[in-house]
Amino acid sequence: MTNPLLADWAGEFALPPFAEMSDDDFAPAFEAALSKARVTISAVAENPEAPSFANTIEALETADALLNKVLGLFYNVAGADSTDKREELQREFSPRLAAYGSEITNNTALFARIEQLWQARDTLNLTDEQARVLMLTRRGFVRAGAQLRGAKAEELTAIKERLAVLSTQFTQNLLADERGWFMELSGDDLEGLPDFVITSAKSAAEEKGIDGYVITTSRSLIVPFLQFSPRRALREKAFTAWAARGANGNDHDNRAIAAEVLNLRQRRAELLGYDSFAAYKLETEMAGSPENVRTLLMQVWEPARAAALADQDKLTDMMREDGINGDLQPWDWRYYAEKRRRTEHDLDEAELKPYLQLDRMIEAAFDCATRLFGLEFRALDTPLYHPDARAWEVTRNGRHLAVFIGDYFARGSKRSGAWCSAMRSQQKLAGDIRPIVVNICNFAKPPKGQPALLSYDDARTLFHEFGHALHQMLSDVTYESISGTSVARDFVELPSQLYEHWLEVPEVLTRYATHAETGEPMPDALRNRLLAAQTYDMGFQTVEYVASALVDLAFHEGAAPADPMTAQQKVLETLGMPSAITMRHATPHFAHVFAGDGYSSGYYSYMWSEVMDADAFEAFEETGDPFNPDMAARLEKFVLSAGGSEEAETLYTAFRGRMPGPEALLRGRGFL
Ligand SMILES: [Zn+2]
């Protein structure tokens, strides 16, 4: 029988063969696809003809087509629905892929061809997009070590393979700790919890085969528990377990892995001629240098810390009124902040929740895309990799644009967090290839027959990930290497964070925030209170984020710390971290930084992008219409369809006419 992963995916929209495939197909498909890629790469390198853009750069663009097809599918299902078998395959594939990457980088004949084209670039009559792809390809080779020879090249290859092993281990350790911890609640322990927390706790227990109620480390469950439970000892127990993920001294401890990763990254940067990994990494980002990152972060840190310290005093007073002495602790903050929000803004998460139904929020995200970009969505009845995942066809004026898959509920087999990925990216080199885009979230799953209800934070996450999805679905470039979200890391959060703003448009909430039982729209008064409370607790939110970003930056600026936990502590002390706030992601579970290279010395990217998204949404507001069609067309033309076809700054300036300062961001966070 032929392997369904290697066959032509001839079904509707060339979707992966979800119904036919099994975990046993991945390894042979991987072997076959990797061999095929190797053969193709050597044919490109050994081509007797003189190098041309077509026989070298374009040939490289398509060399990994089959491998990307197999791995695009594999990594999606492994991240969203892991099994022991899939985890084993990940451990097996990751160092081998790193080795394959190094083989390409170290292929001197191949690099010589690229270099020859690069030197002759002005005589090749390239289109702008081709010139960009040539520049990026060569730059990628150089930054991967193509100019190194001998022992240094070998050392770099070994480092990359080891890093691949460590990042996989880090991810799997974290998942194991998250899966392994839960706290059963008995009758009295449910005190003070609103219905939605109780139903989520029941549903989480069901998933674990337990009759009763369970709190897990899933953000959508543990955060509301910390907000509402008046039982301080339980809050402490839950928070402590959540904060200890990856640092429990068991087989899944990530602390030694973090130390080794930082060491290897620093060595990698040195081999490539950089002072630090941050200098290496930031060279190709919009920020350009660690200094520019620090300047922005500190501009935000100071007012955020001041706001948080003032809040800490108020919350401590509230705790004293409850007869509790001593200092406000990290497991107290959310509880008293929620209480204070109810008093000061008359806003109660439990009152809000019935209005934020998952299905209505999906419709809202779709409808905004219809109004802005003319997209239409049609639910597909097709088998996927998990029964909770759902698919839609996305069209415009009857033309197929993409398949969108939404996989929204938390489960033990899913990595924590929320993300967007493409099982297939848009490109035109191999025909009119349209993307398959996936949004993964970790919302609490309702018991059977009940509607899924979101927190406002969850709803924002849904819009955020959908903004990334639009970047993929509206992509309109020829070359896959610059398609969709293949842009600078500190630019990639612009479409996603910008899209969150449309959730805040009053008419969107009025139309889509309807009560799960009565169907009534959210009352204007509640909506206004919700929107007025948008900057509530922003000191806390900003402090926990910026502290994480500054620790990430410090970790990668020069000699690696012998003990990252001590180094983390020192950074926080120097910053004057408020005592009742912890980092949003502490080192042992900082997956952004250690589960791969993506956001290493790049966690600041959200804030860098926020400078632009705050300013970009003001561009819509200035027209008086948040759905202004001209502005939407500009956004699509210069940002959403353009991928990495030009420098991020060029794209943004083309959209807005100038680059922004941090004022809109500070205003948006209530710090001005
Ligand atoms: Zn994002």
Please describe what this structure looks like.
- The protein is an alpha+beta fold.
- 57% of the residues lie in helices and 6% in strands.
- The chain has helices at 26-46, 53-63, 65-80, 84-105, 108-119, 128-144, 150-180, 195-207, 219-228, 232-243, 255-271, 277-282, 290-321, 330-344, 349-352, 358-373, 456-473, 489-503, 506-512, 524-532, 538-555, 564-575, 591-594, 605-622, 629-640, 648-656, 663-668, and strands at 183-185, 213-215, 376-380, 390-396, 399-409, 419-424, 436-443.
- Helix 13 (290-321) crosses helix 14 and helix 17 (456-473) crosses helix 18 (489-503).
- It starts with 25 loop residues before the first helix and ends with a helix.
- The relative contact order is 0.11.
- The mean pLDDT is 96.
- Zinc ion binds next to helix 17 and helix 18.
Describe the SSE topology.
Layout: H1 26-46, H2 53-63, H3 65-80, H4 84-105, H5 108-119, H6 128-144, H7 150-180, E1 183-185, H8 195-207, E2 213-215, H9 219-228, H10 232-243, H11 255-271, H12 277-282, H13 290-321, H14 330-344, H15 349-352, H16 358-373, E3 376-380, E4 390-396, E5 399-409, E6 419-424, E7 436-443, H17 456-473, H18 489-503, H19 506-512, H20 524-532, H21 538-555, H22 564-575, H23 591-594, H24 605-622, H25 629-640, H26 648-656, H27 663-668
Parallel strand pairs: 5-7
Antiparallel strand pairs: 1-2, 3-4, 4-5, 6-7
The chain binds zinc ion.
The site of zinc ion has 4 residues, from helix 17 and helix 18.
